[in-house]
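Researcher: I need the complex structure. Ligand is 2-acetamido-2-deoxy-beta-D-glucopyranose. Inputs:
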Amino acid sequence: MEKNMHTVTWSMHIFVTIFNLLQLQVFTLADRGTYVPSENIVINCGSSASEVTEYDGRNWTGDASTTKSSQIAEAPGIPVSVPRVPYKTARIFRSQFTYTFNVTPGPKFVRLHFYPASYLDMDVSKAFLSVTAGNFTLLHNLSVSLNTDYFHVAYLMKEFIIHVSGSTLELTFSPSSNATAAFAFVNGIEVVSMPFSLYFRCLNAPLPLVGHYPALYYICNDTAMETLYRLNVGGDQITPKYDTGTMFRTWEEDDPFIFGGDKGIEPINMSMPISYANGVPPYAAPKDVYRTSRSMETFKAGLINLNFNMTWFFPVDSGFKYLLMQVLIQ
Ligand SMILES: *[C@@H]1O[C@H](CO)[C@@H](O)[C@H](O)[C@H]1NC(C)=O
Ligand SMILES: *[C@@H]1O[C@H](CO)[C@@H](O)[C@H](O)[C@H]1NC(C)=O
Ligand SMILES: *[C@@H]1O[C@H](CO)[C@@H](O)[C@H](O)[C@H]1NC(C)=O
Ligand SMILES: *[C@@H]1O[C@H](CO)[C@@H](O)[C@H](O)[C@H]1NC(C)=O
Ligand SMILES: *[C@@H]1O[C@H](CO)[C@@H](O)[C@H](O)[C@H]1NC(C)=O
Ligand SMILES: *[C@@H]1O[C@H](CO)[C@@H](O)[C@H](O)[C@H]1NC(C)=O
Ligand SMILES: *[C@@H]1O[C@H](CO)[C@@H](O)[C@H](O)[C@H]1NC(C)=O
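Model: Output:
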């Protein structure tokens, strides 16, 4: 694995709760208790007003100024199912444009929000963009409309996990080509810090490289990751407002990812009290993640049911390494 600064390791984070297994010490972290992010920056790109949203309670700052290389625009005819903040307005780029954020050094979530629309009467299917964060390439030649069409969704959110070593974070957006008609856009940007050792535990937490035993892999400050799937097994979607640790993560339901008909059974008791085990900080995952699960039936005479397999199916790109994280309960 090259660990040069220009390499992006896109990783997958599947948060799975599995019933009746021992606590996996994934979250034995130095940080204890609650977590309050030192940065929680939310930008409503292209908007002239700052607005507190109903769904996450944050004050999304407008950034309406136009510049030589960018314009602002509104999405025409946005459906009611699409949150107006941050998707109604956008910043349109015809050449390279950099957002500079003053931050504390450390690991950050960077979330980019996109809603494909015919801004300024332009053909959104012609918009291809690349995004860098310092020396990391986060997106290369992304077409928002191809992605939303493929996944049958109205809008797109891309979440990255990077480590910032200095006191500024530069996010640079550029159209993929320098052709005169080329353009790109972005609707919303979030920069949210996270506990130091949530992912970047480097030499303290070697990870097994599946299929390459006994090789180990280390996630250090020079690794960048993209979250592909974060699932609440057997439960409903948990929106950013209800995430623990004020990190505003989204936990999706896992039903669409179950392969085949065997979904196990879903023992649900939403009034079950949850106490975080020793070594598991509450910000690891919200309590509701632990309250639902899938089980391959109950243990029978100490044996787990061997009559079927439960399989989750995740489309991924080849050429990257993937990290699978589980949040387990006892
Ligand atoms: C939201 O932020 C803007 C700009 O920083 C500020 O003027 C406004 O008072 C804030 N609104 C609330 C409800 O905090
Ligand atoms: C990673 O960055 C943190 C600061 O965010 C620093 O304390 C630590 O020493 C760095 N680790 C390495 C291996 O550079
Ligand atoms: C980015 O890469 C350049 C050239 O490889 C290097 O000099 C610089 O220190 C790097 N910047 C950061 C923030 O790592
Ligand atoms: C970007 O992707 C499009 C569609 O796949 C392709 O036609 C175009 O050549 C790509 N541009 C770059 C700069 O890679
Ligand atoms: C566009 O032009 C700029 C400035 O000449 C250059 O740095 C950049 O690499 C070009 N981008 C592409 C995709 O050709
Ligand atoms: C749910 O959990 C609570 C608290 O442990 C318990 O009192 C209740 O009987 C449980 N309900 C079911 C249906 O198991
Ligand atoms: C479950 O998966 C294992 C490993 O792929 C396989 O050996 C076994 O036959 C499967 N069991 C069933 C019931 O399909």
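Model: Summary of the prediction. Residues 1-37+197-330 form one domain.
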